[in-house]
Amino acid sequence: MASQGRRGGVSLPDRPSNSTSILAKISRSSLVSRGKEAAGDAAFVAKKLLRSTGKAAWIAGTTFLVLVVPLIVEMDREQQLNDLELQQASLLGTPAPK
User: Does residue 6 form part of some domain?
Assistant: First the structure.
């Protein structure tokens, strides 16, 4: 038991203090910095696109609710009224109105 001071685990060899790690060299490269810049720009564009798409969906949804839904309800009422008149005419034996 050569080292009594350490408890369990695996010890890594000591690195010389004057050498820089490969990870540090890669993270400082121009390719990585350009990649980070491109990722930031892509995130900005995606955020803007998502926001404008959300606004357009809100406008379309409210327009549909205000203009189209009442029209659909009124057309359904008219159809029910026509069906009722047709049913009454057939029961009474009178010709159906045109």
Answer: no
Phi, psi of 67 (to 5 degrees): -100, -40
pLDDT < 50: residue spans in the chain: 1
- The one-character DSSP state at 70 is H
* Domain count along the chain: 1
Tell me whether residue 3 is in a domain. Answer: no
Q: What is the pTM of this model?
A: 0.44
CB 95 within 8 A of CB 89: yes
Q: What are phi and psi of 56, to 5 degrees?
A: -65, -40
Q: Which two tokens stand for residue 82?
A: 């026509």
DSSP E strands in 1-98: the ranges are none
Among 70, 71, 77, smallest CA distance to 85 is for 77
For residue 76, the enclosing domain spans: 22-92
